[in-house]
Amino acid sequence: MTAPAPLLMIPGPVEVSPAVLAAAAGPPPGHLSPRVLEAFGRSIELLREVFQADGSSQPFILSGSGTLAMEMAAANLIEPGEAALVVGTGYFSDRMAEILRRHGAAVTQVTAPVGAVPPLAEIREALEREGPFKALFATHVDTSTGVRVDPEPLCRLAREAGVLSVFDGVCATGGERFAMDDWGADVCFTASQKALGLPPGLALLVAGERALTLRSLRQAPPPPLFLDWDSWLPIHRAYEERRPSYFATPATSLVMALAAGLDEILAAGVEARIAAHARAAAALRAAWEVLGLRQVPRSEAVTGNTLSVLHYPEGVDAGFLPRITARGVVVAGGLHPAIRTTSFRIGHMGYAITRPDYLQRTVEAVAEALREAGAPADPERAVAALVAGLGA
Ligand SMILES: *Cc1c(COP(=O)(O)O)cnc(C)c1O
Question: Which residues, other chains included, contact 191 with Cβ-Cβ below 8 Å and sequence gap of 6+?
Fold first, then answer.
């Protein structure tokens, strides 16, 4: 018998549910088959619910990873020479800035120390003094620092300045509250393998009416064909009406998984799913505290609920990660250059947060590995803190 697969507790790809696995299994269906038309059309409708977007918004489902969604946002919204404001939270906001530059944007970044979020006053000031900007870009949860921004006031500031607001929800959507319509956000995107709890391979983007209108008024040459919303709009409208259409072949097996996964998330409502992420994250934070592990985010208010980014304790380094792996749980090392060798990351998003046994195995593995590495850790007390938190 082969050894059981290790528990994947990295910030994506993540563990997926049996229903999602089953939906993706079997021979890949054709892209014009009734099953795929239904799954694709239904996914478009369900994505509006997950992003809390209104009927005038357009969800896009593309084959690719989160970075493709970032490219798509930049390619459709930015004309060469236009200015973009990036809220700096870490590695992924830096990536957004680099992508924007490659699409010809003049990028201004408002930065903050690692683990902090730039103050709203500084963002307002940049919007007032350094514009005019076409769009403000922010990372809802930055997976390199664990830092979470509050999108609502950013949307408001952007609105007041007449600027589009765009959110990278790759490590957040489905795990953190996001009310696209209520807040007036213009674009939000994610990828399948993070908080939505699906296999990797789909880039998911929702564009609001204002963003779609600005794309249609574009003066510059059109974006690359594959990234252009105009390439995809007729196909997505056809799929939503359950009519066959073709522009570029969708990842049909993943689209089947997407519909099943979104159904699962929405069975109890997206708010319940988000509350479950918050509960799991709080219980894990209690366990980390018992183990003496300090968070990289500087306060609870800016700590995302989809992952933990933790400093190594005194006397422990990356050499302790294989001790966790040896216990059948996979976590991730540091990503942000400033803390790459001094921090590690544990994903807790998607299906995993509905499985107290997964969370417990993770806490046990981390605690035992810490003890083995010579840190004063008490696995039983850590698990008790987790269990108490989950029960609360
Ligand atoms: C993972 C991630 C990305 C990039 O997504 P890929 O699927 O790896 O291309 C972008 N932004 C954030 C916040 C992420 O967590």
Answer: 12, 65, 66, 69, 170, 200, 202, 203, 204
